[in-house]
């Protein structure tokens, strides 16, 4: 699997950057994971939106879905120009019916509900789900392909069930919206200590911190997480590519 970071900021994007969005590719299949503010603009550096095969969203906060509408506009404009543009499936949960309905747009995109109690096959990817601890319903994804495991926490406070869910992941993409001396739990987010603790307990091969805060010295998040996990730790950054 090849993972490209499109955007990595929590809540809103820094200037000229994007909030949550990741492109996951395998065997020529292109899956966009979350589509937050700024993602459509940044995405076009790596892939033509008409070449996406599917999109999946963790939850319906704006920093994860703000650019779904403009993705739909991009596809409708391109469909006028090139009639072969395909209908894009966008997978999301159905626990917020109103938000889910917006995933479907004319004959351009189709909202598809994932059942979090079942594994889901999208192209070459097998995806399982874990409900997270967040102010609105949100799901973490464990995505497997070609014997490799990629886990994305989505937005969440720390919960013990993450440990089994992320077990032995080749790459754990963990939200880290707060510094170690801050309590992210009340806001439904993790801090650097939580991320390091999870990576160690789940025995993951490497840890990438994302959903980053716009303040403070973000490199400190790596140092802080490193007090709990002795594997490789990286900060997510737009344009970064991981081979998993
Ligand atoms: Zn978020
Ligand atoms: Zn959120």
TrEMBL record:
Q: Which InterPro entries match?
A: Metallo-B-lactamas (IPR001279), RibonucZ/Hydroxyglut_hydro (IPR036866)
Where the record annotates domain Metallo-beta-lactamase, the positions are 18-211
Which superkingdom is the protein from? Bacteria
Check the record and name the SMART domains matching this protein.
Lactamase_B
The GO terms this record gives for MF are: 3'-tRNA processing endoribonuclease activity
The reply to whether Zinc figures as a keyword in the UniProt entry is yes
The yes or no answer to whether the keyword Manganese is present is: no
Keywords assigned by UniProt, alphabetized = Zinc
Protein name (Swiss-Prot/TrEMBL):
MBL fold metallo-hydrolase
Give the originating organism. Answer: Perspicuibacillus lycopersici
